[in-house]
Amino acid sequence: MKKSLRLSMMLLGFMLFGYLQQAQATTYYVDFDYGSDAANGLATTSSWKNIPGTKTTGNGGFLSAGGWKRLVAGDVLVVKGGTKHTSQGGGMIQIDSTWYDNGTASSPITIKGDPTWGTGQSIIDGSGITVPNWSGLVNISKRDYIVFDGGANGIKVQNSGYNGFQTTGNYNTLRNVEVYNSIWANVIFVSPSYPTTFLQGATIERVVAHKTGINDDWAANIFLTYVNNAVISNCTAYDSNTGSDGIHLGSCTNSWVLNCIVHNNGEQGVDVSKDGDNKYRDDSWNVTVRDCIGYSNYKQNFDSNSSSRDIYFINNTAWDTAESEKGDGNFQVYEGGNRVFFINNTSAASNDFGYGIAWWGAYYNLASGTYNIYLINNVSSGDTGKSVQVENDYSGRSYSVKYYNSLFNSTYGGYVVTDKSANYTSSNVVSATGGWNGVSCMSSDPLYTLLGSTWDTTNLQLQSSSPALNKGVFPFTTSASGSGTTITLNKLVSDIDARMVFRPGDTIQIEGSGRYQIASVPSANQVTLTTVATWQSGKGVWMPWPNQKLDIGVIKAPTTSAKTPSAPVLLSAS
């Protein structure tokens, strides 16, 4: 009895401590134009001029700011809209243990814009400000659960002499922010103990990142390395420098890129790779790129390389690659890869092939053997080269490419597919002759609405008479009839994993039953729903589709009038 009472009192104490922490959380205010760092920061009329942790312009130490307070879990710092931080006010913003505790999952520390105070973007301008190597103009150093959110007005971070926004903290969030014209990466999340351990948790949402200044992978618009459990969603990345990507995931695991646009970048659009100095490790796996648009990037629009494994490209649109040399596809696997899936993607106007599977003289940590690549429900039509090009075996390593219900109509030299030493014509693909072992594939005009000479005039939606409509195959079907909230799935191929396709919160469709929201994905062949459903055996389960059956190619491809995710922020004129 006494032991039970003691445990109850301890539990009550912990709950009271958590409540007091939340109750003591404070909101502070910053007005870059007219605030004062001698003020208490507790009201818009007594706001600070700088965010706590702001350094001197030349990075000689922190500003002298008698009014600043240490920010603790649950604290909120509001930045006035339409104001501007420049070298006249101070230097880089250093968020570290000097002025900040860690936040918590339930009580993060939040720096945000507020549409009720000021109008337009707040700007943090790095012109004339010293940003040391390997740092950001906004630099979160080993602080966890920090949210940097521009809100409805947006915050713009621009003209950094090194990185724009950088964090080495776990479970940090960057949201509703524009980052522009950094010398190196505009946005970078990197492990604080790179390359020994992974940074845990990263959320990048509704961010616009554009224009970088160095020819290097590390100068991507959005760059992550050694990050586990990242989600990049509703972002736009464009105009990175030659040799740098739109979105780069180097040695990342269990991560997602969702509903993003990458265009006119200096190398790849979305690049799933390994850290350049550590390519022989097995540390790039379980990454999904879904519902994205890539166009006019210099090399591939979407690629997986350096023997990354369990990589999924789902429902992505790729149009045009800019380089003149041959050998790159709109979608590409190179330098090894295993269990890489391309599902319901559309490729058009590539300078060479639609889908490329290559070694390019490297396989890194892959042992001798055979490695599986899957093309399911994909379209390649209007590409300059062949629809698919698979390189010959290399040094005891071999790709085994499995083709299901895809439309291959891009022709070069009379062939639509070259799989190692075997060349296949349209007739071979359609009639399954000449050694072609694909399942239910076709080779004909998919009847895009319009394959224009520019992205803005292109509409890759399929016409109502398209031969690709209702001709896809479901990657998952119900294993038995049933009713409830847990569905066990049959898989089209044994390698496919539902945990890499669906996420909690996704809406899915069950053929013949309706649409439901996913609560969890507990295993490779099981999903749970938020509401009760009833279904029959053998019915398709996938993201919602518009027709009777699943189509080949992107489901609801972007049109000329609706090609972007909802705008992350109102872009300035720069």
What is the overall shape? globular
Rounded average pLDDT: 93
Largest sheet: 23 strands, parallel
Cα Rg: 25 Å
> Helicity, in percent?
under 10%
- Which oligomerization state do the chains in this entry correspond to? single chain
Supply the key terms:
13-stranded mixed sheet; 23-stranded parallel sheet; 5% helix; 2 helices; mainly beta; 574 residues
Structure, described:
This protein has 574 residues and is mainly beta. 5% of the residues lie in helices and 39% in strands. The chain is built from two helices and 44 strands. It has a 23-stranded parallel sheet that branches. A 13-stranded mixed sheet has the order 4-7-10-12-14-17-20-23-26-29-32-35-36. A six-stranded antiparallel sheet has the order 39-40-43-42-41-44, with no helix packed on it. It is globular.
Topology readout:
Layout: H1 2-23, E1 27-30, E2 76-81, E3 84-85, E4 93-95, E5 109-118, E6 122-125, E7 136-140, E8 146-149, E9 155-158, E10 163-167, E11 172-182, E12 187-190, E13 199-212, E14 222-225, E15 227-233, E16 236-238, E17 247-250, E18 253-258, E19 261-263, E20 270-273, E21 285-290, E22 293-297, E23 302-305, E24 308-314, E25 317-321, E26 331-334, E27 337-343, E28 346-348, E29 355-357, E30 369-376, E31 379-380, E32 388-390, E33 397-404, E34 407-408, E35 417-419, E36 422-424, H2 426-431, E37 448-450, E38 459-462, E39 476-478, E40 482-491, E41 507-510, E42 514-523, E43 526-535, E44 541-542
